[in-house]
Write a structure and sequence with these properties.
It is a single chain. This protein has a single domain (3-343), classed as TIM Barrel (Alpha-Beta Barrel). The chain contains 14 helices and 14 strands. The chain has helices at residues 3-11, 27-37, 41-48, 98-103, 117-122, 138-146, 148-157, 159-184, 207-227, 244-249, 267-274, 286-291, 295-309, 330-343, and strands at residues 52-54, 58-59, 72-73, 79-81, 87-88, 112-113, 129-132, 190-194, 198-199, 202-203, 231-236, 254-257, 279-284, 315-319. The strands form four sheets. A seven-stranded parallel sheet has the order 1-7-8-11-12-13-14. Strands 3-4-5 form a three-stranded antiparallel sheet, with no helix packed on it. Helix 6 crosses helix 7, helix 8 runs parallel beside helix 9 and helix 13 runs parallel beside helix 14 (330-343).
Length: 348
């Protein structure tokens, strides 16, 4: 059974030969691991046992000139500064009227070049599960455009404004993904999207507000993926237990990365209530196990997670956050994946 078969069997809630592995990491950790292990990118993926590969469209628009101190600009004109993706330094639509939202300089999806995606996917020879489509972080963009507190107030005071902004955001992302899929869907397996609706203490908005403002747009993206016979997996950080039933209702096939240290995300509970309805990806604690633990502790904790999540399929093993941080010891990450290959075998 190759990696692609293994992953698709898990998505079917059947037991493959072993639990599939997922390795997502920060650029800083990835560079450190390559340096310590003297491996190139593909060599490191092979060492980790990663069963996935990811392909991307490319920005092909004019060069963006950053203002002093600004480290990046989102497609929607939000400047950011600081470590990593940083924090927004401006909220362009904070005081906008509905008319100003409609007149805003929304980006042209044609600035994304999808012509390389098929070749990039086919280069893996259908050995791995291929992730594709636009990341589509429309919830984060909404927060950036309005400011978080302001956004919450407008959900009550001016719902049509929120609706208009989110619709324009998702229009952009859906169009880019549709072009990717028109060109290369038969070379892709999973439409991978990301929006963090949870925090350490639970979801960032109530189920009622989630259903009112967010769920229809998640359904639009999910339906798009299914129209092309793709599995749809949502990356969602934090605790969002109360939102999972709605995610299942609209047909999301998998959830990533499952943080067991957050409120409501107890693994046994998730597996018992939802394990036959949606695939879980991740669940091995990035903070308290991978960063703070030693190799023996990582092996023990990984085995405990597998004992809960492995039965019946529907599980991919990996860190509880896709962005493994630079301070994570490389030997701990290796210990996690080695333990998955040792203890994640079905029928053993």
């Amino acid at each position: 059974m190759n990696s692609r078969d293994r992953v698709l069997t898990a998505f079917a809630h059947e037991e493959p030969d072993r639990v599939p592995c997922w390795c997502g990491a920060s650029t800083e950790f990835w560079a450190k691991a390559k340096r310590e292990l003297d491996l190139d990118d593909e060599g490191l993926r092979l060492r980790m046992g990663d069963d996935f590969r990811r392909v991307f469209a490319r920005y092909a628009g004019p060069e963006i000139e950053l203002a002093p101190g600004v480290t990046s600009v989102t497609p929607f004109g939000v400047e950011r500064e600081g470590i990593g993706y940083g924090q927004p330094v401006n909220h362009p639509l904070a005081g906008a009227t509905l008319e100003e939202v409609e007149a805003y300089a929304w980006p042209d999806p044609l600035l994304m070049d999808v012509s390389n995606v098929r070749a990039a996917a086919e280069a893996y020879g259908r050995e791995y599960a291929i992730l594709g489509g636009d990341w589509s972080p429309f919830w984060h963009d909404l927060i950036d455009l309005l400011g978080m507190e302001n956004m919450y107030l407008k959900m009550y005071d001016d719902p049509p404004l929120i609706d208009a902004i989110v619709e324009r955001l998702v229009d952009y992302y859906a169009t880019v993904s549709q072009w990717i899929f028109d060109d290369a869907a038969d070379a892709i397996d999973v439409f991978f999207i990301g929006n963090d609706f949870g925090g350490q203490r639970g979801s960032l908005l109530s189920e009622e507000m989630f259903r009112r403002f967010i769920l229809p747009h998640l359904k639009r993206l999910t339906d798009l993926g299914h129209d092309y016979d793709l599995k749809v997996m949502l990356h969602c950080c934090g605790g969002f237990y109360e939102l999972i039933p709605a995610m299942i209702e609209i047909g999301i096939d998998g959830l990533h990365a499952i943080q067991p240290c957050c409120r409501g995300m107890e693994l046994a509970r998730l597996k018992a209530e939802f394990g036959d309805k949606i695939l879980f990806n991740g669940a091995i604690d990035s903070q308290h196990v991978l960063i703070d633990g030693d190799v023996d502790f990582v092996r023990r904790e990984t085995r405990k997670v597998l004992e809960v999540m492995k039965p019946g399929g529907g599980y991919v093993a990996g860190a509880s956050h896709d962005w493994i941080l630079e301070e994570t010891p490389v030997e701990n990450v290796l210990a996690m994946f080695d333990a998955v290959r040792e203890f994640g075998v079905y029928g053993a």
